[in-house]
Design a protein that fits this description.
Belongs to the peptidase M14 family. This protein has 307 residues and is α/β, with parallel strands linked by helices. It contains ten helices and twelve strands. The protein has a single domain, classed as Aminopeptidase.
Length: 307
């Protein structure tokens, strides 16, 4: 039987007010440095890419500049590939997998595509290893007009300013044990709901768009990633995180109606990757490699479709 849990902040059944949100923020701590771990890797790419600072978070504009990396010789006749990482800053391989792809793989696709990579959309979340921003807002449910998330708002403005058709969007994420142990309980407490435990899938999977699922595209990603890490099986009900499995390692969400990052464009080919870093069968390096393999599988498939 699935158990119910009460979160240590707030009153069960009552949504948080300003006092509870302040209590939550007060118990967060800086655990790693965006300026030391991420920004130097971004700056190291400037010999081969154009670097765009598309904003900074008001929590500390000096500590949290927002960067995108763009392939040079932008050609409006080529389709655009958008890669986003760190929308949930705590999902480490999303950030470092995006940077690894830029460093090791992007050049081979630059003849066919304009590529723009936003490797760490939520640098405050990266530092405190959390899903939310300081205002208890989840950026990956906040991609809509007048967003309450600075992270989402800055990214949308950057993307809207890009020239050319965005054909592909790959949003790099992780599903972690802490989703079940911390982040989902906190969310339900914030919203005055009861948290009932579910489970964390052991392995990699993708999330496609219910309105535009592109099953062969998703399959190409799964086939590429399985060379690096294992693919998540369905649970006893045939689901992954509560959604029906459409094919091996693939579920679909209504991306736009949920205000998810992968729904911010009208791209033909979109996917959200989900690496499982807490498995005893993988290393951090394999998690980064899985993100790179996902991007490679996606772009190899699209190149074949373009002929």
């Amino acid at each position: 039987m699935k158990r119910e849990h009460n979160y240590p902040i707030g009153t069960p059944g009552k949504p948080w007010g300003d006092e509870e949100k302040a209590q939550w923020l007060a118990q967060t701590t800086i655990k790693r440095s965006y300026l030391e771990e991420v920004v130097p890797k971004i700056n190291a790419l400037t010999a081969d890419f154009d670097l765009l600072q598309y904003g900074a978070l008001s929590y500390d504009v000096e500590k949290y500049p927002l960067f995108a990396i763009k392939t040079r010789n932008w050609d409006n006749n080529k389709p655009v590939v958008l890669v986003t990482g760190g929308v949930h800053g705590y999902e480490t391989s999303g950030v470092h997998g995006a940077l690894q792809f830029a460093e090791t793989q992007a050049a081979q696709y630059s003849d066919s595509f304009n590529i723009v990579i936003a490797p760490c959309v939520s640098p405050w979340g990266y530092e405190v290893i959390n899903r939310w921003n300081p205002n208890t807002v989840d950026p990956n449910r906040s991609f809509y007009a007048d967003s309450p998330s600075e992270e989402a708002d800055n990214l949308m403005k950057m993307v809207n300013g890009l020239e050319g058709e965005i054909l592909v969007h790959i949003d790099l994420h992780e599903t972690t044990d802490s989703d079940e142990l911390e982040f989902r309980p906190a969310r339900e407490a914030r919203d005055g709901k009861v948290f009932i435990e579910d489970g964390v899938p052991d392995g990699f999977y993708t999330v496609g768009d219910t309105e535009n699922p592109q099953p062969e595209f998703q399959k190409a990603i799964i086939d590429s990633v399985r060379k690096v890490t294992h693919i998540a099986p369905p649970d006893a009900d045939g689901n992954i995180i509560g959604s029906p499995v459409q094919q091996e390692g693939v579920i679909n969400y209504p991306l736009k109606s949920l205000s998810l990052c992968n729904g911010i464009t009208d791209c033909r080919y979109g996917t959200t990757t989900e690496v499982y870093p807490d498995s005893d069968r993988v290393t951090p390096e394999q998690c980064n490699d899985a993100q790179v393999a996902a991007i490679n599988g996606a772009l190899d498939y699209v190149m074949k479709q373009l002929g």
